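Exam revision sheet. Question 4 asks you to relate a sequence to its structure. Input first:
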Amino acid sequence: MLSVLQPKSKQLVYDLVTQAGVDTSDWANVKGGHAAANPKYCYDWAFWDDAKKVVVFCLWYSQMDEHEGRVFEVLNYRDVARKADSVRVARARRMDQGLYMAFRRKLPVRVIVVDGARRGEADADFSKVEFRMLDPVPWSVVSYDADTGACRVEREQSAVTVRSFLLTWGNFEETPDSEIEDIARKLKRAKTVEGQWSSGNRKDINVGERVYLLRQGPDAPGLVGWGTVSEEPFEDDHWDPARRRSGVKANYIMVHWREMVPKDAGIPRARLVELGVADSLLNAQGSGVIIAEEISRQLEAVWSENYRLLNKALPVPEFDSLESRSERKLARIAYNSAGWQRPTGDAGELESGETYNAKNKFGHEDWLFRAEWVIDGWRYAFIQGLNKHRLAYFGQSLDVTLYTLQPDKRRRLVATINGLESLDNDQAKDALAVFKERGWLRTMQKEVKDIGGNADALGDPKWAEHVLNVRFRIDNVDTYPPDTFLPDDDWIHDRHRYMLYKLEDADRQRIEQSRLGRSGSQEPPEVRRLFRRGTNPIEYTPEHGKMQAKLMAELQQEYGKECVCREEDFVDVRVETEKELIYFEIKTDLDPRAVIRQALGQILEYAYHPARAGRRPDSLVIVGRLILGEQDKAYLASLRERFSLPISYRVVTV
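Answer key, C-alpha cells:
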C-alpha cells in the first residue's frame, strides 16, 4: 500500500492545492502575475479553505509508515517550530495550527506527498523536493495532544475514496479529433476547461471523482487526458443523431478537463499494456467503466511523468495566452413572434409538454433583444444553448449565430451576436441585482403573468441556475431579414435547442449562402412606428468598478496617491504630475479590438474637444482586460505613427 504513494513526478504546489479544492484565486495577486510562484503561498506546508472546509498538508514520503494495512505519519510541528530557523518557524507554526484545526473540527485532509532530500536525512543541510503529487485518497488527523503538539495523521481505508472512471470514444464523426485538440489548446491558457461527456449507463459518478479519456480505434489509440467531475450524471438528448431524432436520451456528466493532448501525443496503448491495464478497460466500447485503485494510481503516475513532455507536442497558440479570439458558434432559440422583446407564449404551444416553455408558458430567452435594458452598454440576457455549459466558455469572446424553428417548421436565421460573453456566477448575480434595482425583473414577472405563465419559475435553479447567463453589446448584433431560412436538410435537423455547436468553415458558408440566397424585392419597405420605453442610464458594470479600483492602486504605487484621481471631468482615471498628465479610459470587453473601438472616440473627446478647458493630456491610455493581438498592436502603432496620437494600451485583469 505504501509504495503506491511514492511520487514519480514533480507537480506544482499551486496546481495540487487547486485540485484539492482550496481557493487559490489570491495567489494571482503578485507582481508579474505568476500565481504559482507567489512566495506568500508556494513555500508553505499547510493550506486550508474555511468556506469549503478542506485542509491540505505537505507530508514527506520518507516519514510515512504502514502497519496492518494502515498508512500513517506521526508529527510534531510545534516542536519543529521551537528548533527551526526564522524562515521555517512561521511555516511550522502554520502547519501546527492546521493540524490542530483539522483535529478539532474533524475536517477532511488532503495530502501532497513530497519526496527528495529532506533536511537532516542522508547528511542533507537543507530540504529539496524532487517529486510531488496529490494523494487522491483522503486522510484525517486521528489524534492531537494539545499540550505537546504531537499528533497522528492517517490515510483513510474504508472512508469515501476518490474513484476513477474511464471515458472513451471511437466514433470519430461524432467526437472529432479536432474537438479534443481544441480542449488541449484552451488548456494552454486556462487551468480547466469544462465540457460534457457521455457516462454510458453509469449514474453513480460523484462530483470530484476523476475520469481518464481513452481514444479507441486502429489509428493512434491511447490515453489523451484526464479531468474531474463537476456535475453528477444527468439526462440529455442522445449524442447519436439517429437515436436523438427518435427521442432517445443518454446519460452525461460535466467534466473539468485538467490536462489534454492531441491523439498523436497521447500515451499509446502499448505503454498501457505494459502497465498491466486490463483488457476490459483497453477494449471498452463505452464510457463509465470504473478503474481499480491500483491501476488508477499507475495511470496517474505515468501520465504525470509524461505530460510535460507530451504537452510540448501541442502546437503553440497563434496568439498570446491572454489574448481573446472569437469562436463562431450556432445555437437555436425558442420561437418568439415579438422579436424576443417580451414573452408571447408561442414556444410553449409549439413544444412538447415536458419542456420549460410548455410547462411555464415562457422562456428566459423571450427578452433576449430588449434593447433598452442596458448596463454600461451591455445587454445582459439568457441563451439556452449556454445554460449547462456557461462556465466552459467564460473568459472567451464568442460570435454566436442564432436561428429559430417557426410554426411552419422552417428554420429561420435570426441574428449573429458578435463578441458575446458568458457570465460567471458573480457577474450573473451582480447583473440580476441591477435588474431588481431598476425594476426590470419585476417587469419580466408581470409580463409572464400577463400571458398566463408561471412567473415563479423565472430563475428556478431546477431549470437554470441564473436568470441571466450572457452579455453582449446591442451594436454588435447583426440581424437577418425575416425571410432568411436555412436549408431543410439533415445537417440542421441534427442540431437541437439545448446545445451550442461549433461552426466550421463549411457551416459558415452554409449560413452565408442562406443569407445571400434570399430573394430580393422591388417593393418599398413597410414603415412601422417603433416605441421604446425610456430608462435612466446605468453607468458602470461591476467589472468596471473592479478594474478602476485595481488600476488606481497600481498607479498610486507608480506615481504616488496624491497624483491619482478618478471621475474628474468624466475621465475614468487621471494621473497628473508636474511633468505629465495622463488619461485612462476603461472598457470591460474581452476583445481588445472592441475595447479600442469603444474607448477611442471617448478618450479623444476628453483630450481634445474645444469644450474641454484646461491642461491637455500628454498621454492617452486605453485599458482592457486582455492583452493585444498582433493586429491590434499594429493598429495602435499606426495611430501613433500616422496621426501622432500619444495613445497606448494597458491590461488590468479582474
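Marking note for examiners. Residues 312-324, 518-538 have pLDDT under 50 and may be disordered.
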